[in-house]
Amino acid sequence: MNRPQQHLITAARQAFLQHFGQMPTTLVQAPGRVNLMGEHTDYNDGYVLPCAINFGTVIAARRRDDAMVRVVAVDMDMAFDGFWLDETIKPLLDQAKQQWANYVRGMLRELQLLGLSFNGMELAITGDVPQGAGLSSSASLTVAVGQAVKSLFSIDTLDATQLAQAAQRAENNFVGCQCGIMDQLVSAHGKVGHAVLIDCRSLQTRQVLLADDVSVLVVHSRVARGLVDSEYNTRRKQCEAAARYFGVAALRDVNGEQVSAASGLDQMTMRRSRHVVTENQRAQEAAVALAQGDLRRMGELMAASHASMRDDFEITLPPIDELVAILGSAIGEMGGARMTGGGFGGCVVAVLPTAMVKAASDAVAAQYRAPHGESALVYVCVPSAGAGSLTL
Ligand code: GLA
Question: All domains of the chain, ordered by start, with CATH?
Answer without folding.
Answer: 6-209 (3.30.230.10), 214-381 (3.30.70.890)
